[in-house]
Write a structure and sequence with these properties.
Two copies of one chain form a homodimer.
Chain A lengths: L4 E9 L3 E3 L15 H8 L16 H7 L5 E7 H4 L24 E5 L7 E3 L2 E6 L3 H11 L4 E6 L1 H9 L5 E7 L7 E2 L11 E7 L5 E7 L1
Parallel strand pairs in A: 1-7, 1-8, 3-4, 3-7, 4-6
Antiparallel strand pairs in A: 2-9, 5-6, 8-11, 10-11
Chain lengths: 214, 214
């Protein structure tokens, strides 16, 4: 089996918005009410950030349970690591993900600005330049035969879609509209030229859109 | 987390039939057209018996992909191992599953008749007596902290349901009726006193019924 590049548990609103224009340390998504995008995931038993027992084991749980299964590395945009822009000002601040980041693999953070790697528990963040294909090649090598997760944010997902490097996508469309913000798509139909699609409504109110290459 | 006992990718007809009354070496399910029960699984990319690349990566694939994820042992009834009844006549015949059984863990085959364990590739079959709880305790120990799959057949699933030992069930209801045979249920409503349920139709025509303990 080849190593797939997979977008997993990526959350957008009904109008395709995944983040606001203005992220900050206090508001990582730059959206008021961003939690409405991902509350479905937090309600499941297998949510990677879950600290208490409990949670649902219905359809939504299959998606959160699958999050780390067969994944050997993640690629993320710089904005998913933190809100800083331009040259790194503060090496002491080690990202939004705390002492126990949920990735538990090598993570390749795309940035034009070098910085030493950071290891936090089972996760090591590497800060890498280069185009999407070059970064994917590094991530594949680090993944030791397993798949690579494309973690986002939305700008990064679009960049890899434009380069035709994405093999599968799971996008959860939440029952909320934001009106403005950074969009993954105007309509998920945009991907039908290159991908099969299934649309699966969940009891939680989100609608799972599943894509895989034609 | 505790170790769950999970029924996974268990296939029944619209009238609840999972197998015929009369299994044989040539007809393991004892049903004409049994392949209509599980053809949805064979069409997915992650079907454990798949030998060729390809297959769908939509909703159904989440279920076949989950088959071995976090599973450390399987329990099965004797009829899932082979069609022999009564004392073992032929130790040379090593079950229906070939040289590369898809389980890849210890498997506990419930039988009143002792027989030495058999190792085939990554799978070891143990032949064990005792009631469901005693067998579950052995399987949990062998699973080393991971979950235990309850593999079937239908009589065995019912036996563990009657003993209230099952934590989650995924039952795929196929668009076929058999009229007669061994039934898992008359209606999946029978489980609602003890389980949450979600019913998720798939593009393939099967309807996934997901249950987890209340």
């Amino acid at each position: 089996m080849s190593q797939l590049l997979r977008v997993m548990n990526f959350n957008v609103s009904q109008d395709g918005v995944a983040a606001g224009e203005h992220q900050s340390l206090e508001n990582p998504f730059g959206l008021d009410g961003a939690e409405r995008l991902f509350s479905w995931a937090g309600a499941t038993a297998s949510w990677p950030m879950r600290t208490e027992p409990g949670g649902s084991r219905g359809l939504d749980d299959y998606f959160t349970r699958d999050y780390s299964h067969g994944i050997g590395a993640e690629i993320m945009g710089r904005n998913k690591f933190g809100p800083q822009r331009g040259p790194w000002q503060d090496h002491d601040w080690q990202g939004w993900w705390g002492d126990e980041p949920p990735f538990r693999t090598p993570v390749f953070v795309m940035t034009h600005h070098e910085r030493p790697s950071i290891t936090l528990s089972d996760t090591t963040f590497h800060f890498v330049g280069g185009d999407p294909l070059a970064v994917l090649e590094r991530a594949r090598e680090a993944a030791r035969g397993m798949d690579v997760r494309l973690g986002g944010g939305v700008t990064t997902v679009r960049e890899f879609l434009d380069a035709d490097l994405v093999d599968t996508l799971h996008v959860a469309v939440a029952p909320v509209e934001f009106g403005t913000g950074l969009r993954l798509w105007d309509s998920s139909d945009e991907l039908l030229d290159r991908f099969h699609r299934e649309v699966v409504p969940s009891a939680s109110g989100v609608v799972h859109h599943l894509f895989w290459r034609r």
